[in-house]
Amino acid sequence: MKKGAIIGIVTGAVVLNIAAFSIFGSFLNKASAAGAQIRTHNDGVAVSEGVYYDLGSSNKGATANMDFAAEAEFADEVAFTTNMSGSPVTASPDDPGVNVDPSQGRLLIRTVMITAETTNYNQVAADLESRVRECGGYIEYSSMHGTGNNKDLRSGSYTVRVPADKLDSLIEAVGSNCTVTASNENTTDVTLEYVDTKARIESLRVEYDQLLTLLSQAEDLDTIIVLQNRLTDVRYQIESAESRVRVLENQVEYATLTLTLNEVLEEKEVEEPHVVTYGEKVSNQFKQTWENTVKFFQNALLGLIACIPGIVVMIVIGVIVLIIVKVSIKKRRARRAKALAAKEAEKIEEKKSEEKKSEEKKSEDKKETKEDKKEDKKESAKD
Length: 383
Hints:
The chain contains 7 helices and 5 strands. It is of the alpha+beta class. The protein has a 5-stranded mixed sheet. Residues 27-98 have low confidence and may be disordered.
């Protein structure tokens, strides 16, 4: 390849890179300028609770036609969730009227769990359903196990949602129809979360209105794309926050009762609380000590009985070991006795041989003395 062609290719690549960086830099500058305008405008606007914004009134430019459908959808949602004063709209005028206005009191979520037993399962279950309907609530979940025949006792679980002001009356009705064996209540304060979420929604609405205003004034395509992306993000945040608000309002207006109903052959009698005296404490302590002592010896006896096979095996092994030890001791003693007898016999033989030698020596000495006497006599005769 010629040097001129190589130089041309390199020069073209450099020019294309410079042009691409220039276009990308101008896009970033415009987006930053648009964001700066939004932040500057937000800093100068005071957000006050209870202000209603008509999001469709500012969308008059030619470029705003691209967002008409989204704006109409959002305006319909805002009109459904808020009225002209900014307060939440209830779903029906027949609602129980539980206040979800933080200025009127704390927003509390009540959850009650009850375990009960009854001998008439069908009647209690039917009465529960009718009571729930009378209170204006509904059964969110229910399940039942068992047939009720041949001592196959039934057990049911119910999750009930009723207006918060009717919860106590429903609990009282349940307690009057069956025996409550356990109960637990949990109350959650969501006032702060509710207020923060509402304030966040109002702030997002202000930002959404400002974005629509800037979108109606925008003429550059890159700026329009940046604003539309931000509008989509803000709209998603508003919908999520409003969904959370509706969930909190529903949980505050409707309390939750979780009932576990067990069928029994005979209901337990609920004993009245009794104050234990000092004498009863002493008597109970003595009884407990005696019972513990009896249990100790019973357990010790059971342990001993459980150890009998091991004890028998150990006894047998001990007897065998004892026999082996005795036999080995007897053999050792026999060997020692035999060795001692052999030593004694050797000693006796040595004594006998010594005595024999001494006798032989004596006899020799006698012979020598006799011979000496004879020689002496011969010598004396010669003389």
